[in-house]
Design a protein that fits this description.
The protein is α+β, with helices and mostly antiparallel strands. Helix content is 42%, strand content 21%.
Length: 85
């Protein structure tokens, strides 16, 4: 991303937080129906959570990149990583 951004360019990465709460998932699935909500909960907890990054891991990756630092903004299920060139 750093290589292809113009000077002054901004990259945005949105990804799942590893530390999302059960309440955040419940809020996300509310109104989706019992079967869909159950499948989504299972997917979040059995598959996605183990592949997600912690805030510290994201900061470490950014520090090792050409960006050197980024702005991490947390939402209930995801983080936004804003990177400026």
């Amino acid at each position: 991303m750093h290589r292809v951004l113009k000077p002054g360019g901004v990259a945005l990465v949105i990804d799942l937080r590893k530390d999302f709460s059960p309440q955040a998932v419940d809020d996300y699935v509310r109104g989706r129906g019992t079967i869909a909500a159950t499948m989504i909960r299972l997917t979040f907890n059995m598959m996605l959570k183990k592949r997600a990054y912690t805030q510290e891991a994201v900061a470490d990756l950014v520090a090792q990149s050409h960006f050197r630092h980024g702005d991490i903004r947390l939402a209930p299920l995801v983080f936004e990583l804003w990177l400026h060139k």
